[in-house]
Write a structure and sequence with these properties.
It is a single chain. Helix content is 35%, strand content 26%. It is of the alpha+beta class. The chain has four domains: 57 residues, Orthogonal Bundle (Arc Repressor Mutant, subunit A); 121 residues, Udp-n-acetylmuramoylalanyl-d-glutamate--2,6- Diaminopimelate Ligase, Chain: A, domain 1 (3-Layer(aba) Sandwich); 119 residues, Roll (CBS-domain); 118 residues, Hotdog Thioesterase (Thiol Ester Dehydrase, Chain A). The strands form six sheets. It has a six-stranded antiparallel beta sheet with strand order 18-19-21-22-23-20, covered by helices on one side. A hairpin with a 6-residue loop joins strand 18 and strand 19. The chain is flat. The chain starts with a helix and ends with a strand.
């Protein structure tokens, strides 16, 4: 039987998108304490299917698929700009595809404004009305209100009209920043984005028999199943290898592999992939912090996700991108070995104007990656790094990085890195790296 927490999550999940919910309402509807209702609503918010907006409340929103993560909902816009909803609350769950700044004449503005847009504008009431009729939501800057007719139209069309005290330029910058941050996140696909959820997961209980495994095997053609107790906490995993030669009346608990390797929903797919390859696993149970089964991921799920990541366009520049873009590969004069040069820019410095420890770490990692790439095609994962010498390097200095491979195998590499500034040794590091093949 599902716990009260799970019952509340199921209840919220079945609510129509745009529905407003509250702790008191949930507590009354499901006959639970307000504390239990509050914790479940917070969990639903973390899972991304409700959103709490100041001065509006908590509403059911549509969970965004990973490929659409760069799209913002109007509810998120309200949070970003610390806005107040004047009308059209029922449309807060909808996503916007672009925003338009209304700094032109009305007819010109309307040529650029269409369905799914967000018009950012001051107190121009006629433009508010025209935008709504064109299918766009409205964000009014400068803390201005709008007319009652516009609010009523917004309610009728279920398109939000939002007011914020910020000016137009600041609002546009804030929304751009939010979209940019989400684009960076887009490349990091998590297990929770690809898992088969528990309601679609086939599992066995510790009290089941080998004959139950055989029935499931015939029905599904699968041979690996997680094993859970009565509370759906993962206790083991059972495969055809465990079943072989066992009596059909043997308890699953007696033959399963206990304490199996599992992952949380927040684990990156790249990390899960690495785990599955190294441990030779076909299936991983996905659990929460209390070891409750949330679903499973298979090797096929992981491969599809990694292929999807590779097809995505490169988006945004992270701090690592800024650092590695400064690296220039040259060849040594004597042995023709790989040498990297890097200019230390102001954004790579710490508070006293010298190279930051984090930037130095990124530089030596990328240099090691570059030199290992000549030997093995794949992604490098640093398993162990020791920085055992580092002198201050001033901004606008140029450093030279000498990575030297000490040992390289099929799945690992050991690299020594020396860093010089004007011929003087300023840094040394030793790295043990694992190499993940790209499929």
């Amino acid at each position: 039987m599902a716990t009260k927490h799970e019952q509340i999550l199921l209840y919220i999940d079945e609510l129509p998108v745009g529905e407003k919910i509250s702790v008191r309402q949930i507590a009354k509807a499901l006959n639970v304490s307000e504390g239990t209702a509050y914790r479940a609503i917070k969990d639903a918010e973390n899972k991304g299917y409700v959103s709490t907006i100041e001065r509006v409340g908590t509403i059911r929103i549509e969970q965004k698929k990973k490929e659409n993560i760069e799209k913002l909902t109007y509810a998120e816009v309200v949070n970003i700009v610390d806005g107040q909803v004047l009308g059209g609350r029922a449309g807060l769950h909808k996503t916007l595809n672009k925003f338009v700044i209304g700094a032109m004449k009305l007819d010109a503005m309307m040529r650029y404004t269409g369905a799914g847009n967000l018009l950012i504008i001051g107190n121009r009431f006629q433009a508010h009305e025209h935008a709504l009729k064109a299918g766009a939501a409205v964000l009014i800057t400068g803390g201005f209100d709008t007319e009652e007719d516009v609010k009523n139209l917004a309610d009728e069309l279920e398109l939000p009209v939002i007011s914020t005290s910020y000016d137009t330029f600041t609002v546009a910058t804030m929304i751009n920043r939010a979209i940019y941050d989400q684009l960076i996140k887009k490349d990091i696909v998590l297990v929770e984005d690809i898992l088969t959820p528990i309601q679609d997961t086939i599992f066995l209980k510790t009290t089941d028999l080998v004959s139950d495994w055989m029935n499931l095997n015939r029905e599904t053609m699968h041979s690996r199943f997680p094993v859970v107790d009565q509370k759906k906490k993962v206790q083991g995993i059972v495969t055809s290898k465990d079943i072989m030669g066992k009596d059909s009346q043997t308890l699953i608990e007696k033959i399963m592999t206990k304490n199996p390797i599992s992952v949380s929903g927040k684990t990156s797919v790249a990390s899960a992939s690495h785990m599955m390859v190294w441990e030779g696993l076909e299936v991983l149970p996905v659990v929460d912090e209390t070891n409750l089964l949330q679903g499973i991921i298979s090797r096929q799920d992981v491969l599809k996700a990694l292929q999807m990541i590779q097809r995505q366009p490169q988006v945004g520049e992270t701090i690592d991108d800024i650092v590695t873009n400064q690296l220039v590969l040259t060849k040594g004069k004597l042995k023709g070995e790989d040498i990297f040069q890097c200019e230390i820019t102001p954004q790579m410095s710490n508070h006293i104007g010298t190279i930051s420890y984090g930037v130095f770490t990124t530089i030596v990692t990328e240099a090691a990656n570059g030199v290992l790439r000549g030997y093995k095609k794949g992604d490098l994962v640093v398993e162990n790094m020791t920085i055992y010498f580092l002198k201050p390097v001033q901004i606008e200095s140029t450093i030279e990085i000498y990575p030297r491979i000490l040992e390289v195998g099929r799945k690992f590499g050991k690299v020594d890195v020396e860093v010089f500034n004007e011929g003087v040794l300023v840094g040394k590091a030793m790295m043990m790296c694992q190499i993940m093949d790209r499929h």
